[in-house]
């Protein structure tokens, strides 16, 4: 009985130690990190946390084998790994700032500005790991808000470009945007996001404006038919009917 009580005390102490680090050191450290390091700091912190939990697990392996099985309590690894998700990445003080940092970084890349692609990729992979065999954390903390912001950006871009460009020049813009978003997704987002961002861009730039593109007085379908511009007509209808090629990029 005494041995069992000591095991319980030791295991309880381990939980406190494992919990204290992300709550009182990692979280404040991330919040205090400079803006240009805010995206990469959580990923490094999460890797360090997993290593720390694994080291503690290895040190108390015998206690884990005996106490966990006999007393039906969570192992250090089982309760330690999700701590980073709950107490750091998705904590109320951290989650909104991290999410906005990711979205702003994607917006800068979309505008042609320099971004730390590796940090973006690592940040997305970190969210995948925090989901523990599920995309739920990645979807909720990044993918859904990213797609929503992308839709808003493309809707505004379509209005501006339609007012300024001919039909075929607008098609150039739409094709280029689909290609850029596809390549960006391939480089550093979860594979499941690629098809979704293609759909968003196509919907906002092409599907929502098909009639306006076709009906342009000087450069729409009627004008191209009159002037026998077969190549331009082909491009318009190809983009309309097949927004995504088999390789995911408009040719």
UniProtKB/TrEMBL annotation:
> Pfam families, per this entry?
Cullin
Q: Name all Cullin N-terminal domain ranges.
A: 2-242
Which Gene Ontology terms cover its molecular function? ubiquitin protein ligase binding
What are the BP-aspect GO terms?
Answer: ubiquitin-dependent protein catabolic process
* Family of this protein: Belongs to the cullin family.
Q: Which PANTHER family match?
A: CULLIN
- Its recorded name reads Cullin N-terminal domain-containing protein
The species is Amblyomma americanum
